């Protein structure tokens, strides 16, 4: 279990995370949603020990994240950041092999190679395994980084916007893969997402953040209420139900503000054409 208790984080004097307390249950897929700048990445990075916090606690299986020995933590928890370093002249397979480092310390065993093969296959990257990562498309690169995290084979998997750059087919493929990691391998997956309909469709729980504070934390279907989504994103949505899951309709919105925006766009086009 991951427990966050009274967590606070400032950047300079700006409060980014304010007195945040929440629990992430094991063997569930939890989506972290909220507007730009809400503090989602900061929270994920603090849980993954990529960023220090000012006060409060983060406990991973009862031990404060700062107290974990690095290799042991890397065997317990993996994290994919929102943006990943580019420019490394390594192949897709070599990138995935980095994920095995906490286990193999650089000497890949037959079992490590099998895990890499399985992940390449899962992510439809087998044909690209020898290609340099600098030569991949945005979506292929995103899948390679997800593959590296999956190769790490940890109990906790944290992914910051894993669907970035992915087409619909690959987005659904990744979400199905994450679901299987939870349902078949007992993993605990936390995903930062902007597409709230994917969050509704695939998550067990949804944590919503706004202005560095907890806004909602409940079963996915319970967070998917019109008043919650409206207030979270300051929009006007319609929630519909299909196959026992709720979906949010936010296109073709005819709220006054949206119409004004449409007029602005028309005026802009008229002025520039
Ligand atoms: N290194 C930093 N130095 C200063 N301010 C930062 C830093 N990192 C993040 N912030 C600020 O902290 C706030 C939260 O940022 P964060 O990246 O956690 O948001 P987010 O919810 O992940 O947003 P997005 O959906 O746009 O990715 C923002 O106001 C951001 O400008
Ligand atoms: Mg972010």
TrEMBL record:
One of its GO terms (molecular function) is ATP hydrolysis activity. GO terms for biological process: iron ion transport. It holds the Pfam family ABC_tran. SMART domains: AAA (SM00382). GO terms for cellular component: plasma membrane. It is found in: Cell membrane. CDD domains: ABC_Iron-Siderophores_B12_Hemin. It comes from the Bacteria. Keywords: ATP-binding, Cell membrane, Ion transport, Iron, Iron transport, Membrane, Nucleotide-binding, Transport. SUPFAM superfamilies: P-loop containing nucleoside triphosphate hydrolases (SSF52540). Its main location: membrane. It is a peripheral membrane protein. The keyword Ion transport applies. The keyword Nucleotide-binding applies. Residues 2-236 form the ABC transporter domain. PANTHER family: IRON(3+)-HYDROXAMATE IMPORT ATP-BINDING PROTEIN FHUC (PTHR42771), PETROBACTIN IMPORT ATP-BINDING PROTEIN YCLP (PTHR42771:SF3). This is ATP-binding cassette domain-containing protein. It comes from Atopococcus tabaci.
């Amino acid at each position: 279990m991951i427990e966050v208790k009274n967590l606070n984080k400032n950047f300079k004097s700006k409060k980014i995370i304010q007195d945040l307390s929440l629990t992430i249950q094991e063997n569930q897929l939890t989506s972290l949603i909220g507007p730009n700048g809400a503090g989602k990445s900061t929270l994920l990075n603090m849980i993954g020990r990529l960023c220090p916090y000012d006060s409060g606690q983060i406990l991973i299986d009862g031990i404060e994240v700062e107290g974990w020995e690095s290799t042991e933590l890397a065997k317990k928890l993996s994290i994919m950041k929102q943006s990943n370093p580019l420019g490394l002249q390594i192949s897709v397979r070599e990138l995935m092999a980095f994920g095995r480092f906490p286990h193999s310390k650089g000497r890949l065993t037959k079992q490590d190679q099998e895990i890499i093969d399985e992940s390449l296959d899962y992510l439809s990257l087998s044909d690209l395994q020898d290609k340099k990562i600098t030569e991949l498309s945005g979506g292929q690169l995103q899948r390679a980084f997800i593959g590296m995290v999956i190769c790490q084979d940890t109990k906790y998997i944290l992914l910051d916007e894993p669907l970035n750059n992915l087409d619909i087919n690959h987005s659904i493929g990744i979400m199905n893969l994450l679901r299987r990691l939870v349902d078949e391998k007992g993993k605990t997956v936390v995903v930062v997402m902007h597409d709230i309909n994917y969050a509704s469709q695939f998550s067990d729980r949804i944590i919503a953040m706004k202005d560095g504070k907890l806004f909602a934390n409940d079963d996915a279907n319970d967070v998917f209420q019109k008043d919650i989504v409206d207030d979270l994103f300051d929009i006007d949505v319609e929630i519909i139900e299909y196959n026992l899951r709720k979906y949010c309709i936010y296109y073709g919105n005819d709220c006054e503000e949206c119409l004004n925006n449409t007029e602005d766009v028309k005026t802009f086009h008229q002025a520039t054409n």
